[in-house]
Amino acid sequence: MKVLIGVAAMLLVLPVAAQDFDGVEIKTTRISGHVWMLEGAGGTLGVSAGEDGIFLIDDQYAPLSPKILAAIATIQKGPVEFVLNTHWHGDHVGGNENMGKAGSLIVAHDNVRARMSTDQFMDFLQKDVPASPKGALPVVTFSETVTFHINGDTLRVVHVPAAHTDGDALVHFARADVIHMGDLYFSGMYPFIDLSSGGTIGGVIAGLEKALALSGAKTRFIAGHGPGSGREGLEGYLKMIRGVRNRVAELKTSGKTLEETVAAKPTADLDEVWGQGWIQGDQFVEFVYRSL
Ligand SMILES: [Zn+2]
Question: What is the pTM for the complete model shown?
Answer without folding.
Answer: 0.93
